Amino acid sequence: MSRVVLKEAYENGCEIELINLKYLQIKPCIGCMKCVTKLFNPNHAGECPIQDDMAWLDRKILEADGLLFVAPMYECSVPGEYRMMCDRLGPSHDITFKKFLDERSKSMGMAVTTDHRWYTPKPVAFITHGGSEWSYMAYPSVATPSISLGLQIVDKVHFDYNDGILTNECHMERLREMGRHIITMIQKRPEEREYVGPQGYCPVCHNDVMRLDFDSNKCECALCGTIGTISVKNNKVQVDFTEDAKILSHLIDGGRTKHGTILKFV
Ligand SMILES: Cc1cc2nc3c(=O)[nH]c(=O)nc-3n(C[C@H](O)[C@H](O)[C@H](O)COP(=O)(O)O)c2cc1C
């Protein structure tokens, strides 16, 4: 499926590269918190101490104008290798945290060392598939890197039951359409980009997995944390989100800054 999307992008003039995580050495995060403690203490260098292929993968992400992440379902989530990558792309890569560090360095008269390409919002699409219907967490688990990296989600697709994907012309065309859409979005300015995947409840990240509050009609997006209000109209669940709630999504600076405030370093 990755190849179908990338081939379409290639045939429409894109340079492409397929990276298979299975062939990289991405070690698990050891929770040393070095990447977090530097937020509290300017004297902490805070670099991730793990030596593996992550620096190489970082460079690939930085050099890309657009991204596609693809994963099968393993135990209702992404496989372990993918999850390890998500952890390693977590707080250490959070672009709001990076901005905070840059500002602090400037105010202390120190050099800003962050590669500015981390701040360019890249369009991203996601593909998940599973052998059955057990896939509720497919999207929130595959799309996790979009939070810390501040990616712009422009498309997603999920196939249950592996559904004869590569022999089904409708599915193949859907994948090719994804390839074309990513290119079109790369060529647009960030504020002009649009999402074309299936509708989700969350208006910010398009996720349809919500955490319900026991004591009220509030719910929270299981990916980006945007808070909404649930009602039922004509036997149909409706979730409303205020503009104030949307700007606190973790997919954008507002939500990540709030997260920093909760962690008490902002
Ligand atoms: C350990 C394991 C757990 C799996 N868990 C799920 C699951 O939770 N939901 C699902 O729909 N399929 C599940 N599957 C089926 C795989 O998603 C399916 O076989 C998929 O095609 C595997 O992709 P791959 O061939 O690229 O590894 C699981 C398969 C394995 C090996």
Structure in words:
The protein has 266 residues and is an alpha/beta fold. The chain has two domains: 2-197, Rossmann fold (3-Layer(aba) Sandwich), CATH 3.40.50.360; 199-266. Helices cover 35% and strands 15% of the residues. It contains ten helices and seven strands. It has helices at residues 2-11, 34-40, 54-63, 80-88, 95-107, 138-142, 145-149, 169-187, 243-246, 253-262, and strands at 67-72, 123-129, 152-159, 210-212, 218-221, 227-233, 236-240. The strands form two sheets. The protein has a four-stranded antiparallel sheet with strand order 4-5-6-7, with no helix packed on it. Strands 1-2-3 form a three-stranded parallel sheet. It starts with a helix and ends with a helix. The mean pLDDT is 95. Flavin mononucleotide is lined by residues 72-76, 130-132, 134-135, 162. The site of flavin mononucleotide has 11 residues, from loops.
Features of the shown structure:
single chain, 266 residues, alpha/beta, Rossmann fold, 2 domains, three-stranded parallel beta sheet, 10 helices, globular, binds flavin mononucleotide
Secondary-structure map with pairings?
Blueprint: H1 2-11, H2 34-40, H3 54-63, E1 67-72, H4 80-88, H5 95-107, E2 123-129, H6 138-142, H7 145-149, E3 152-159, H8 169-187, E4 210-212, E5 218-221, E6 227-233, E7 236-240, H9 243-246, H10 253-262
Parallel strand pairs: 1-2, 2-3
Antiparallel strand pairs: 4-5, 5-6, 6-7
Helix pairs in contact: 1-8
This protein binds flavin mononucleotide.
